[in-house]
Specification:
The chain has 338 residues and is α/β, with parallel strands linked by helices. It has ten helices and 18 strands. Strands 3-2-1-4-5-6-17 form a seven-stranded mixed beta sheet, sandwiched between helices. Strands 12-11-7-10-9-8-18 form a seven-stranded mixed beta sheet, covered by helices on one side. A two-stranded antiparallel ribbon has the order 13-14. Helix 4 runs parallel beside helix 5, helix 5 runs antiparallel to helix 10 and helix 8 packs across helix 10. The longest helix has 20 residues. The radius of gyration is 20 Å and the shape is globular. It starts with a strand and ends with a strand.
Length: 338
């Protein structure tokens, strides 16, 4: 018999609404509540699931709901700390959208609260559930690649995607590059960063409070060198919504993960665009893809299954390296790790 899990989602924006839609249709899951200070927005999201309640704060949620199994936190990054700590102290498992926070000290506090309460903490790095990256990880662990020599990780997207959705609320590196940082750390299990040098541009998007692009070179403890490239500045008519790839060269082999082409391209009389088939496509009226696999895997992980969910400690490492890139890009100096 499938164990039924009661789940609440904090944040009714872009990601929160997708989490809610997936949990509402998941076998063995009950979407119990949506939390957002904008009650009208929360109510619209809650309508996805009969009986789903609405609260305007995490305090109100925790005062009213006593038997939750998981709370998924999809607020802006700088607002993760308070709800995550409160949920953990209530003895409820925590899932936080990436990055775990915008500050190292907040991330450490979230991890400490979850460890003290003996609840599980997962962080939303959905590329771990992309079959292409997962298969590449298998190549690494099987030994077919040998010792990694060099990695190139690119993640560029159109100015009509992230910048339009988030404005100046989130730095490019913390929204985009951190995905590839998590992937690289996942691939280079057992290595740690030694030094990072980065440069960034803000010619196009600086006025809106974010960056056009960032490029970084990171040396790892095992001698592997990694080049990161991220941009939010592709023109609105760019062929790919997200032009992403990862190339790894090892002593025994290499791999290439190519994510630029979704495989489905639409053209009409007035516009043309690539349609998402990867991260959160809607198929038969339900959200599918990497995000759905991740959240289904999350519930299995809570039941003890071996799933590649990023832990709080994983997410702290990703945050520290990404912030070091940002520090180097702003100062123009090499940042070295102790």
């Amino acid at each position: 018999m499938i164990k039924r899990r009661r789940v609440a989602v904090i944040g009714a924006g872009f990601m929160g609404s997708m989490h809610a839609g997936i949990f509402a249709n998941m076998v063995g899951c009950e979407l119990a509540a949506i939390v957002d200070p904008n009650l009208a927005l929360a109510g619209a999201v809650a309508a996805k699931a009969p009986g789903c309640k609405v609260y305007d704060s995490h305090e109100a949620l925790l005062a009213a709901e006593r038997d939750l199994d998981l709370v998924s936190i999809c607020t802006p990054d700088n607002l993760h700390l308070a709800p995550a700590v409160a949920v953990a102290k209530a003895g409820i498992n925590v899932f936080v959208e990436k990055p775990i926070s915008s500050k190292v000290e907040d991330a450490q506090a979230i991890i400490a609260a979850c460890e003290a309460a003996k609840v599980r903490l997962g962080v939303g790095y959905l590329l771990r559930f992309d079959p292409r990256y997962a298969a590449a990880k298998d190549l690494m662990t099987s030994g077919k690649i040998g010792e990694p020599i060099h990695i190139y990780a690119r993640r560029n997207s159109a100015r009509t995607e992230g910048p339009k959705r988030y404005g100046g609320k989130l730095p490019l590196a913390l929204h985009v590059t951190v995905h590839d940082v998590d992937m690289v750390l996942w691939m280079l299990d057992g290595q740690w960063p030694v030094s990072v040098y980065a440069q960034q541009t803000d010619r196009l998007l600086g006025a809106s409070g974010t960056q056009d692009s960032i490029a970084a070179i990171v040396r790892f403890s095992g001698g592997t060198v990694v080049n990161f490239e991220s941009a939010w500045s592709l023109p609105s008519g760019a062929r790919h919504m997200i032009d992403a790839r990862m190339e790894l060269i090892g002593t025994e082999g290499s791999f290439e993960v190519q994510c630029g082409d979704s495989g489905l391209y639409y053209a009409g009389n007035d516009s043309s665009r690539e349609i998402d088939t990867q991260h959160w496509p809607v198929i038969n009226g339900r959200i599918d893809g990497d995000l759905s696999r991740q959240l289904n895997g999350l519930l299995a992980w809570l039941d003890g299954a071996d799933m590649p969910i990023a832990t709080g400690r994983d997410a702290l490492r990703s945050l520290e390296l990404t912030l070091a890139m940002m520090q180097s890009a702003e100062s123009g100096e090499i940042v070295r790790f102790d």
